[in-house]
Each structure stands twice: as structure tokens, then as C-alpha cells.
Amino acid sequence: MSDAPIPGGPGDMDEEALKRFLKETFGDALPEGALDGLDLSALAQQANLPQDPAQLRAAAAQMQSMFAAQGDSPVNWEMAEDIARRTAAGQAGIPGTPAPTGTPGDPGPTDAATSELRQAAQVARLWLAPVISVDVPSTELAVYGRGTWLHRTLPRWKPIVEPVAKYMAGAIGEAIAAQMGEMGEFGGADMPIPGGDPAAMMERVGGTMFGVQFGHAIGSLAREAAGTTDLGLPLGRDGEPALVAANVEDLIAAHSLDPGAARIFLAAREIAHTALFASTPWLGKALFSAIEDYSRGITLDLDALDEMVRDLDLSDPQAMQARRPEEMFVFTRRASQERALEELATTLALIEAWVDHVTTRALDGKLPELEAMREVLRRRRASGGPAEEMLSKTVGIELRPRRVREALSWWESVLDTEGETGREAKWDHPDLLPTPEVLSGRPQAPQPEASQVEVEGLADVALPEDFDAELEKLLSGDGQEQAPREDEQGGLHEAGTADDENDRNDQTDQDDERGGTSPEGDDER
């Protein structure tokens, strides 16, 4: 190995400086003598390493910090949370998008804002209680800042995204290792980084890249979400409704809504969501389980991934942060995943439609601009914001309901036929809810098994006094002419009625077509 300087950069860094960079980056994970005989000039060129020794030392410190923070997790959560906090505070925007709008920074809720939102929640509870037959949560409304929203919701996100992150980190690591493997002398299966396992090191790089993108996405959501249930998922504490004060005020200002009415409207939706999840324990678990199952089947377009890593500068974490998700992650879906996504979207639609249904019934005639506020949320749901879009491109799944209007019609028809108790009973088991096929057609609620008139009619039926004698007559065939008969629709009618006469005529016609059923014919046979 030559000790000559590496040309082409400021300071013409020598190979000893590059050795120090690698040893500082990988520490004890790099075996003694692992770099002997390698062409470090080719390594520096392939990895886009800076030539200036000072920049190289800074890059080594950054890389070492990233790897140390990641630990054994597939995601560098420390970096993800740091980026999320800075994004939520408006200090780091989504790459390639306009600067954040709305209230600057991450202001804590003032006493006045907290009081206004909690008073709105009290009114919303009073108006919701008469129109739903589940318990309205009595827990006081929590009022958050953006950072608190992050802190409360991240524990819910981690198990959802870790299956995706594990797969993506491995795929990114393999793509990077493959690119470095094209170097010939430095690369291939014998590349001694670190501890003789280059794929492990590259997988950590992939986990870091995913953490950066997820941090941007979840931090941006913290600037947009009015509460903890905006996505139709129970992301907050169990049984506790919560609103983000700054985001509520931003939503009011952006659409010129009546402040008092909008606070009651948003509080009612958050409380309705919380009541539904609290009364239906299986629902939240089923949603998270469905997302996790979907995530485990995530696949990337590996050709697109290979193209992405060709120009990747591993020494520059800031360059990684500047990448947009669509530049890094191109997902592919199998037919089974499409079906799972459709079922998840249907469940989210049923949740959203139920909440819209009950809050509209509770607030109709009481709040000004109710339809305008509903329309604002409909448009927001249909288009999604930059944060929701980035999240879907980062984790590969769209948390967006489908066929909400059809689901709303279904809930209204259930209320008409079965009342509030029957409507809420549909949440007792997932099999009682409509499938995507039902919602894609003409919405129709399940019909009751028997009408009240039929039930009362059955109650008037009396058993004969001599039951044994009547049973004997039935078994021997006596009195069949007077026995009730079943019509083509499965109903019963009394003997001697017009329906009964028609049945006998139909039977006679059928006998004539077969050649008759006279006793003489029977004797001849």
C-alpha cells in the first residue's frame, strides 16, 4: 500500500488520515490489520469521502455518533426523535417542500387556550351523550403542545414501523454493499468492514436513513394533527381525549372558522373517537395488528434502490436528511397486500363515518357553520397533507379511509332499522361490520331477523290441550287438510285460505302433467 497523498481534494489527504477515519468510525469493530493491502484511494473515491482531513474527522465523529445511538434497533430512534422534535418546532422542514406555515415554533398551550378547549369539551360531552349508547369518557381533555403530541404518540408508532424499518435497512444495506462490491479489490464478500461483516455495517446505515425520513414525517404530523385520533388510530393515552392547541388555532385561522364552534366541533370528534376505542377494545388492537402484518410484507423496488445509492454520500448525514422519501423508497405490493390495505381502509372509513354520523346528530342545529367544518375535514381527508403523504411514502402504507360516504349511508340505515343500541352493537365483533364489497355496492344495513308484528303473532300461538292426541294425528296423516302450509317464501298460512286453494290447484296441475295420481293408476303400477 502506498503512502502517497490522495490527489483531488483540499490538503491532498494521505492514507494515514483515511485509516484514522475508518478506525474512529468503526472502533473495535474493525479487526487489527483489516485495512492492510487495500486500495484506500479507491475506497475514498467510491464512498465520496471528503479529502480535507478536518472534514474527514468531522464525518467520522458524526458516523460514530449515529451508529452508537442506534444500538441493536433497526431504526436510529435517537436521531429520528431529534429530527422529529426539530421538524415539529419548524426548525427542520420536509426536504423539497415549502417552509412550514402556521404558528411558529412549538408554543406551549396557554392557560387561556387550555380553558377554552376544556370548556368546549364539556359542551361536546353534554351534546354527545344523548345520541350514543356507549359511555362518553369523563377524563378531562388533555391540551398538548406539538412536542408533547410527539412524546405521547411515538410509543404507538414504533411497533408499527419497525418491521418496515428492519426490511428497508437490510435492503438499503445490501444495495450499498453491492455498490461497494463493484470496486474489485475493495469490496465483495471479503470486504473486512466491520468485524468481517460489511452487510451489518451497511444495514446500520440503512436504519439511519430510515430514521431520518421517519423523523421528518412524524414531526410534520405533529404540526398538522388537531388531536390524537386524526388518522383514525388511537395514538394517545387510553381513554384520554387530547387536542393540540396551536394546531387547532392554525386550522381555525386557515379556514376562517368560527373559533368557539370549531373548538366544540373538534373536541366532539376527539371525544367520539375516544369513546369508540374505549368501548371496543378489539378495534385498536386490530388496526395496529393489521398495519404491522402489512408492514412485514413490504417490498422495495430494488432496481430503483440501486440507482439511489449510487450517488449516496455516506460521510454526509446532512445529505441523507435532504433526500425525499420518493427519491429513496419505491414500494411494490402483492395482491394479498392490496387486499389487506383495502380491508384496513374500510375499517378506517367505518370509524370516520361513525364519528361523523354521531357528531353531526349531536351538533346539528346547535353550531353555526357545521356543514362548512365537515367539508373542511372531508377535503383534508381526501387530499391529505404533506406530512401524511410523506409518512405513506416512508412506511409504505396509506392510512386513509376509503368509501367514507358509503360507510356513512350504512350507519344511517343501521340507525333507522335498529336504533342507537343496534348501531353500537355492530362494533361488538368485526364480523358484524360490512366488508369492502358491501360498501362498494349499494349500502344496506343488515335487516332484523323478524319484525315486531311477526314476533307478537308467534306469541299468540297456543298449544292444543290434548297435545299427545294431536301429535298422534299428525304422525298418522289425519287432518293434513287443516294443517297450516308453507308458501314459497317460507311463510305459513292457514288451511282453507286462497293461498291454500292455489297450492292445491298447482299440485293438481303438476299431477296432470305427470299423468295423474289416481288410486286406479296406483293399483296398475
Series of H and E elements: HHHHHEHHEHHHEHHHEHHHHHHHEEHH
Low confidence ranges:
1-13, 183-196, 516-525
Report the sheet-strand fraction.
under 5%
The shape is globular
Helix segment tally: 22
Q: If you compute it from the alpha carbons, what radius of gyration comes out, rounded to the nearest whole angstrom?
A: 34 Å
Average pLDDT score? 74
N→C terminal distance: 111 Å
Number of strands: 6
The major pleated sheet works out as: 2 strands, parallel
Instruction: Report the structural category.
Output: mainly alpha
Helix content: 55-70%
Q: Strand arrangement, largest sheet?
A: 1-2
What does this structure look like?
With 525 residues, the protein is mainly alpha-helical. 60% of the residues lie in helices and 3% in strands. The chain has helices at residues 15-26, 40-46, 53-70, 77-88, 111-128, 146-181, 198-224, 245-254, 259-279, 281-296, 302-310, 317-321, 325-328, 335-363, 370-383, 386-395, 404-425, 436-440, 452-459, 467-476, 498-513, 519-524, and strands at residues 142-144, 242-244, 299-300, 331-332, 485-486, 492-493. It has a two-stranded parallel ribbon. Strands 3-4 form a two-stranded antiparallel sheet. A hairpin with a 5-residue loop joins strand 5 (485-486) and strand 6 (492-493). Helix 1 (15-26) runs parallel beside helix 3 (53-70), helix 5 (111-128) crosses helix 9 and helix 9 crosses helix 14 (335-363). The longest helix is centred in the N-terminal third of the chain and has 36 residues, at 146-181.
